[in-house]
Amino acid sequence: MNFKINLSDLIKDAYLWEYADISDTEDDIGKKRPRLFFTKIQWIFILVSIIGTYFISKGFDNDFAGYIISGLSLFTGILFTFVLTLYDKFKSVDFSEYKKEKNEEKNKHGIRLKNFFKKVTVLTLYSAVLSIVCVFLLAITLMVPKINIEISYELLFENIKCIHYYTLIKAFFVTIYRGCLLYFLLDFVLITVYIISSFYDYIISEINKIKLS
C-alpha cells in the first residue's frame, strides 16, 4: 500500500463526487466536470476566505481554536465508525442481482446503490482528512502564539514602500495561513452537507418508490 497514491486517489475521487450525483453514469459525470476546476460553491468559499482574512486581522482566538479542535477530533472518530458500519452494509448487498443482463430496471437501481456507497464513503473519508488538516493548522495557532500577530492591511498598503521586506513576507504567509484555514473549515462543512444530501437523495427516492394506492 502506498500512502501517497492512496491519498491522491482519495482526493481525486472526492473532487469527482463533489459534483457528481449517485444516479449519474460515467458520461454524465464527465459532462458535469467544472470548467474552472473548482465548483461554483468552492469559488465562493475561496472568495469568502480571502475577504475573511481582512476581518480576522488578529488571527484566531485560542479558545476558538481549542473548541474547533475538540469538535473536529470527536467528529473524526465518529466518521471512521460510520465508514466501517457503511462498509459492513455494503458487503451484505448482493450486487449480482443488479446486473444489466438480468434486469435493466434493477441495474439502474444497482448503479444508484453502488454510487451511493462510493460517494458517501469517499466524501466521509475526505472530510476526515480535512478535519485532520484543520486540527493541524489550528494547533499551530495554539503552539505558535506569534502567528496571531495583528495585521492592519490599510497601514500595510499605505506604507508598503517603507516596510521591511521581512515584515511583508511574514504578513503574506500569515495571511495565506489564515485564508487556507478558513477555506478548509468551510470545505469541511460543505463536504458534510454533501454527505447529508446524498443520504437524503437515496433514502427519499427509495421511500417514494413505495406506493400505497
Overview of the structural elements:
With 213 residues, the chain is mainly alpha-helical. It is built from seven helices and no strands. The mean pLDDT is 77.
Instruction: Sum up the overall morphology in one term.
Output: elongated
Low-confidence regions: none
Strand content: under 5%
How many domains in all?
1
Number of strands: 0
Specify the number of helices.
7
Gap from first CA to last CA: 53 Å
H/E topology pattern:
HHHHHHH
Structural class computed from helices and strand pairing: mainly alpha
What does the average pLDDT come to?
77
Rg from C-alpha positions? 22 Å
User: In this structure, how is the largest beta sheet organized?
Assistant: none
- The percentage helix is over 70%
Keywords: Membrane, Transmembrane, Transmembrane helix
Attribute tags:
single chain, 213 residues, mainly alpha, 74% helix, 0% strand, elongated
Helices and strands in order, then pairings?
Blueprint: H1 3-17, H2 26-32, H3 40-55, H4 62-91, H5 104-143, H6 153-158, H7 165-208
Keywords: Membrane, Transmembrane, Transmembrane helix
Transmembrane segments: 41-60, 66-87, 122-144, 181-203
